[in-house]
Amino acid sequence: MSPTSIILLRVLHIVAGVFWVGAVLLVTAFLTPAIRAVGPAGGAVMNQLAQVQRLPLYLMGAFAITLISGLLLYWGDARTGGSAWLGSGPAQMFGLGGVLALAGGIVGMAVSSPAARKLGALGAAMAAAGRPPTPGELATMQQLERRMATASVLVAILLVLATVCMAVARYVP
To answer: Residue 124 in contact with residue 40, Cβ under 8 Å?
Structure first.
C-alpha cells in the first residue's frame, strides 16, 4: 500500500472509530438513563433519534467504515511484515481489538438497534394517539429499555476494550 492510502485508511479508521465509540458511550452513559428517567415521554426522543435522525444507521455506518479500514490496515501490515509480524505483540493486540470491536458491532446491530427502533415506534404511536401507554405497552417499553440498556453497556465495554487494544498495540512487545 502507498503511504497516501495508509494515511487515508488510518484517518478513516480513527475518525469513524472515535465517532462510533463516542456515540455509544454518550447513549449508554447519558441518553439512555435520561430517557428511562422521564418515562413514556422518552419514547418521542427515541423515535426522533432512531426513525427521523437515523442514529442506528450512522452507528452501523461508522462500524462498517471502522471495521473495513481496520481490516485493510491489518492486511497491509501482514502483507508487509509476513508471518513474523503476525506473531508479534502488536499484531495480536490489533487482532484482539478488532475482534472486540466486531463483537460490539454485532451486539449493537442484533440487540440495541432493533430494541431502540421498537421503543421509538411504540412511543411515536402513543404520541400520535395522544394517550398514555396501556399497562401492556408500559411493560413492553420497560422490557425494551432494559434490553437496550444491557446491550448498550456490553457494547460500550467491548468498544472501550477495543480502543485500549488499538491505543497500546504498537507498544506491546
So the answer is: no
Domain that includes residue 77, residue range: 3-171
Q: DSSP secondary-structure letter at 169?
A: G
- For the segment 63-69, the average pLDDT, to the nearest whole number, is 97
Cα–Cα distance, 30 to 19 (Å, whole number): 16
Report CA 139 to chain centroid distance, whole Å.
26
- Domains identified in the chain, total number: 1
For residues 133 and 125, give the distance between their C-alpha atoms in angstroms, rounded to a whole number.
10
Digit-coded pLDDT (tens) for 117-137: 787 777 778 778 888 888 888
Torsion (CA) 68, 155, 99, 20 in degrees, nearest 10: 30
Q: And the C-alpha cell for 113?
A: 438497534
